[in-house]
Amino acid sequence: MYPTHRVISWLQTPTLATKTSTVTSILFLTTILAIGMASLYSFRTELMNVIIAEQNTFVDIVADSVDQRLRGRQRALQLSAKEITESDIATSDAAQHYLDTNTGLFATMDRSTFLFSAEGILLAERPFKPNRRGDDASWRSYIRDTIRTRQPVISEPFLTNVGDGNMVLVLTMPIFAKDGRMIAIISGSIGLTNPRMLGNLSKTVIGQTGYLYMVAADGKLIMHPDRQRLSQLAFAPQVNPLFDRALSSSPTSACRRRIGSSVPYTPKTKGCCRFASSFGASSSFYWSPA
Q1: Is residue 233 left, alpha or beta, with left meaning phi > 0 and alpha meaning psi from -120 to 50?
Q2: Rg of the chain, C-alpha, whole Å
Q3: Which of 49, 99, 102, 279 is the most exposed place for a label (fewest CB within 10 A)?
């Protein structure tokens, strides 16, 4: 056997030391790989927890902001209701004069202001529209509930029928005489999708592709970046369990409006797209009376 053959034969026959070294190297690399994968998983988990925590905080801030804006408008109605006298609603012309001179309330409501009789009959509105005085609005839920409860009411959001694609909310306030009789109802409508109310929120971008949206108690969208989806269900039932839990988590029989945020992200599963979502509820007002 040639010397080179003996060298090759020695190299091809692993010694105990060679075997030990190889196994040790494999174990070391496997350990390093496992630690790296565990660290990556831990990092992804912590990152998602941070994102969700930040979203929750942001959604809570938005919900509080919505409450403050509605509270301010309801306060304006309350102040107006306190100063209205029976002479201001004695006739439709008197009621119209009051609304036309109450510029502050009209500016606050941004769409329309109304005066109804205690029975829900329209006395006047601003802006004035002909041939509407005397219309019976007692069939409308927010007027009916105001008459029944003698309390202020915030209506369910609805898509306006004037063709501007705006979601509208109506606030009512009963008016009382000095002897405690309810003598009239003052109300105002606001455009939820107007920039001064919620319109700018729909333009909020979270991360690169995240967004904010708002739904009513029935899960229908009242604010969304895609205005074509307004008044449609945000999710079909049982499609988004987190969303379903958010809708059903109200502590009272009257479900509160919900604000949600979604940040799409792509996990390692090929072809799968998930969302890191957060939901919050406004704490002071209900879309419908309790």
Answers
A1: beta
A2: 32
A3: 49
Question: Quick one: which H or E segment has residue 161?
Answer: none
Separation CA 192–CA 195 (nearest Å):
8
| Maximum distance among all Cα pairs of the chain, rounded to whole angstroms | 127
The DSSP line for 170-233 is EEEEEEE-TTS-EEEEEEEEEETTSTTTTGGGGG-EETTTEEEEEE-TTSBEEE-SSGGGTTSB
Q: Whole-structure pTM over 0.90, yes or no?
A: no
CA 180 to the chain's CA centroid: 37
DSSP 270: T
Q: Is 240 left (phi over 0), alpha (psi -120 to 50) or beta?
A: beta
pLDDT at 8: 53
Would you list the domain boundaries of the chain? 67-191
CA dihedral 198, 204, 206, 210 (to 10 degrees): 80
- Using DSSP's 3-state secondary structure scheme, residue 36 falls into helix
Q: Which CATH architecture has domain 67-191?
A: 2-Layer Sandwich (3.30)
Tell me the pLDDT tens digit for each residue of 165-174.
677 889 999 9
Length, in residues, of the chain? 290
Ramachandran area for residue 238 (φ above 0: left; ψ -120 to 50: alpha; else beta): left
Q: Which of 254, 256, 272 is closest to 264 using CA atoms?
A: 272
Q: Are 152 and 169 in contact (CB under 8 A)?
A: no
Say which DSSP state 85 is in: -
Residue type, 272: C
Q: What is the pLDDT of residues 118-128, one digit of tens each?
A: 999 999 999 99
